[in-house]
Structures are given as structure tokens and as C-alpha cells.
Amino acid sequence: MRIAIPVDEKSLETSVCVSFGRASYFLIYDTDSREKVFVDNSAAYSQGGAGIKAAQYIADSGVSALLTPRCGENAAEVIEAAKIKIYKTINDSISDNINAFNEGKLAMLKEIHAGFHGHGGK
Amino acid sequence: MKIAVLSGKGGTGKTMLSVNLAAAAKKSNYIDCDVEEPNGHLFFQPKELVMEGISVKIPYADDNLCNGCRKCMDFCRFNALAYVKDKLIVFEEVCHSCGGCSLLCPERAIFEKDRLIGQVQRGISDNVTVITGILNTGEVSGIPIIKNILNIDGAEKDYTFIDCPPGSSCIVMESIKDADYCILVAEPTLFGVHNFNMVYELVRLFNKPYGAVLNKCLEGENPSEVFCREKGIKILGRIPFDKEIGTLNSNALILARQNKKYKDMFSALLQIVTEEVRHETVTNP
Ligand code: SF4
Ligand code: SF4
Predict the structure, then answer these.
(1) In CATH, which of 3.30.428.10, 3.90.420.10, 3.40.50.300, 2.30.42.10 is domain B2-54+118-283?
(2) For residue B221, what pLDDT is reported?
(3) Which of A23, B26, B28, B249 has a beta carbon 3.0–4.6 Å from B22's, enabling a disulfide?
(4) Cα A39 from chain centroid?
């Protein structure tokens, strides 16, 4: 099974990014082969709707789960429509979260926040 | 003449000033562009109200026609569209109703429908026609409402006062776009100067003639006044910090309609503003 995690850097020592839509990269991890691939999040620099664009990418990537500390409501709508499960990360360590996921210890992300779709400088 | 009243943040007296100038004029329009929190109507208590719903065009796709080419998504710079499991999802609050996606869809799969985002209330309060834009809560952009309420023929009225939203975001730009003159309201504090500077830069960017009104003036040093002097900003008038003004204003009473003292104060200010606007239109037609 493949899972996605928003991360700050393109390295194995990187930590979980606090934001989903604005994360610089996504780590796509294969729980069977243990293969790790880093992909750019092209949505990170979008002016608006970053969460939607990032979610579209995740939806297209064919992962089965997303591990993230938080997720906006629009992004969650896309990801849920793609039947991808959203789990809440426990800390900012990649390996802790992957281990917890493998052991079935991660909880589903419950609090989906309303977007900050500010228009201009509002 | 169209006169916009601006301030960098709420609570500076922007509404108080626009309401009272409108009330002091013989005949005027008062347009409340602070669509998220319109307060002017609380002062005017307008009668003969007419309401009009304001809606925007929102795209929706016919799933039978859409082939998932995603051209619409690549085009939409607001990322208001997603395509999952053979279905196009439209995020209505994110969409800016540019109409691009429906024009560009090669399959002609995108249609448009109306979505109500707020309303406009028009009414009369003695000498003032009161026009209020009201944005429904949760909506992102009040710009379509601003466009509607500013689209008036001000010619038959001598004065149109535009009470702008606080700040300097694009909704404020939309509000001052057609103004002949901008009045910047400043509070006498350092923080007030910071807010004042925001709108000062905005009106300069838009190349609008402008002047300042200093509100809540006390004895002694006024950082906003110092700022105006340094930048060579014309000070149109000063409104004192006065308990009576505070009380009347917080009871949503119009100072210029309460007693002669204030009526004279705002009439005099209006006179100065009028001369400034005339002067500007002569020198920079
Ligand atoms: S452009 Fe038209 S056909 Fe292509 S994905 Fe969008 S709605 Fe579907
Ligand atoms: S109308 Fe414009 S903003 Fe709205 S979804 Fe279509 S392209 Fe995006």
C-alpha cells in the first residue's frame, strides 16, 4: 500500500510539514517495498486554492492514505472523493508516523479546518 | 462628485465621517461598501427599502459530456476545480466567476448557474439616499456587490459618499476606483499612523487626489498630524475627541442631525472637501 506525507525537505531526515497544501514536497512511501519517493508539491506556490490543487495531486497519485497533521475542508473533500483515508500524524518524525501507521495506531484526522481562502490582502 | 472615505482599520471613524458628511450635504448618496459589516444604515435608518439579491455565475459540469481532459483545471488560476473519480468538483466559494472554464471547455460540458452571495438595500433617509451592500457570511469576495452599488448615476445628486471597507485589499481598490477624491481618516496614535500609511500608499498608487481628516484629536502631539506634515498631506479638518460625540455616535445617532454645532462642523468640512475636489478637477481634469 502506498501512503503520502507532506514534508519540508527532500531528504530522509526531513520532518512532517505542518501544512498540507503549502508543504514543499510529498513523500510517497510504499509500505510493502519500503520505497520512498519525494515529489514536488506544485501547489505550494499557488495564490489560492493550494489545498485543492495539492489534494488533486494526491488523488491522482494513487495512494491509499494521507498522513498529515491538518487538512482544509476543500482538500479533504477532494481526497475523500478519491476514497483516500486521512490519518492524523502523531509528531513531526517521518519514521515514527510510518511505524505507527504500519502498526495500525494512527487515528483518522477528525478536525477538518475551514479554509483560509482570503481574497487579496483580507 | 464621488468622494471615498478610507481608513486602514475599522473603528477610526470612517463611517461616522461619511455618514455625517452625507447628512450635511443638501442632497447626497451614501454608499456603504463595507459589505462584511455595513453600519451606515444603522445611523440613517432608511425608509422605503428596496432589496435586490446579488448573485454570481458558478460553473457546473455535465458529467456525461465531460471527458476529463482537465483543460478547465489547468486554466483556473484559483484552483476552484478538481476532477476525481470521473467527476468534476467545483468549489463554489473559491471560484471567482471569471467564466473562463465554460468558454474554454472543448466538450462544452460546463454550464453556469446563479449563486446568491448577498444583497443590496436601497432606501431614503431625508436628504440622503442610502445604499448598502451586504455580503452573506462565509462568502469570500464582495467585489460583485461593490460593482453593483457603485454603478449609479451620481449626476443628479451633488454628492456621493463611498464608505469603504477598512484596509487596503482589492475590495478597497474596487471601492475607490471611480472616486473623484479620497478622504483618509487618521487616529492620533503611532498605530494609527501605521494604518493611515496603508491607505495613503493605496491612494497614491491609484493616483487619486486625497486629503486627511484627523479624528479623535486631543491636546498635544498628534503622530498622524506629524506624519501628514512630513509627507505634505493636506489636512482637511480635525474632529475633536469629545465625550458627547462618542456618546451620540455609539448610540448610532447622526451628529450633524442632532445639533447645530455639529451640523456646522461637518458643513464646514464638506465645504473644504468640495473646494479641494473642484480644485483637483480643474488642475487634473
Ligand atoms: S475542460 Fe471540459 S471536458 Fe475537460 S475536464 Fe473540464 S469540463 Fe471536462
Ligand atoms: S469560472 Fe473561472 S474561477 Fe470559476 S472555476 Fe471557472 S475558471 Fe475557475
Answers:
(1) 3.40.50.300
(2) 85
(3) B28
(4) 12
